[in-house]
Amino acid sequence: MKKQKIAVIGFGMWGRNIVRNFYNLNVLDIVCDLDDESLIKIQEQFPGVKVTKDFNDIIKDETITGVAVVTPSHTHFKIVKAMLEAGKNVYVEKPISTVAEEAKVLTELAEEKGLVLMVGHLLLYHPAVNRLKMLIEEGVLGELVYAQSDRLNVNYHKNDRSVMWDLAPHDVSMIAYATGKEPVRVISAVGCSSDRNEIMDITHLTIEFEGGMIGQISDSWITPQKHVTLLVRGTKATAIFDDTLPENKLKVYDNFIPANTQDYPLDYLEIEPLKLECQHFISCCASGQKARSDGENGYAVTKILEEAEKIMLGSKLEQLNQKDFALSRMKG
């Protein structure tokens, strides 16, 4: 099998983890970043790795087989498109784009060129999530009726235009993957800004999934105590995945026994999900197979979140109009 050579574009907070994993997997060739201090750190921490400030150096290098794009979401479309057009397999951090039409263009371009396009929906590679998926497929939970994902934490670097675009791609992709049910429509979507500006740092979504299953998703950038859980309820049992626990992250409860008793074997390998995700990308580059979190997966998530944002912004505009109307009535 031909040895893969991977380039990483972006050495920010998450980019550092991507660089570390590809380096440890012995495939990292070059890292691109605009910050001079970051380039110095890369050379100090990862001996032998090349650095550049110009992603055209990656495009021109025909030996590079895969590129990981770990930059702000509004830059994804331009960079990913350029890499695909240059014949490179691409891993792009979530969301693939904040515009569904752009996600569709990238997906079709990768398909047309026979290239791997993989989106960083990390939870699809989490061992506990995959164990949950197995339980659901085995019918342990019964018919699925409800899912709830809460991803609450503090973020002092609010780079995206809302917490929804930063965190909800994880929630939507994880629920769809674990349950085997694609999102159908957004029932409701609300958000607010604790700083009273245009960046919503708290959002709540209610989504209908295939088969009538309802999913509720809450995301926050302002919660001091980290809370990262997924609850899936079926007609027989309810599963809870708590990613803040150091071990035993997945538990299953019988719906009809009022006790905290696990009735099912829940063993799984404790492996860093990001390592598994990076290994999967390398494997896909080598074999040409579609990634588990491929462009279609990224497009489906972007499409549903784009719909949610329209509802949110429409609701916000309606509230402002009602406020203006009330003020005008008071003045009148």
Describe the overall structure.
It is a single chain. This protein has helices at 13-24, 36-45, 56-60, 76-85, 100-113, 127-137, 163-179, 273-287, 295-331; strands at 6-9, 28-32, 50-52, 66-69, 89-93, 117-120, 144-154, 183-192, 202-209, 214-220, 222-234, 237-242, 250-254. By secondary structure, the protein is an alpha/beta fold. It folds into two domains: 6-122 and 276-294, NAD(P)-binding Rossmann-like Domain (Rossmann fold, 3-Layer(aba) Sandwich), CATH 3.40.50.720; 124-270, 2-Layer Sandwich (Dihydrodipicolinate Reductase, domain 2). The strands form two sheets. A seven-stranded mixed sheet has the order 8-9-10-7-11-12-13, with helices on one face. Strands 3-2-1-4-5-6 form a six-stranded parallel sheet, with helices on both faces. Strand 9 and strand 10 (214-220) form a beta hairpin. It is globular. The chain starts with 5 loop residues before the first strand and ends with a helix. Residues 320-329 have low confidence and may be disordered.
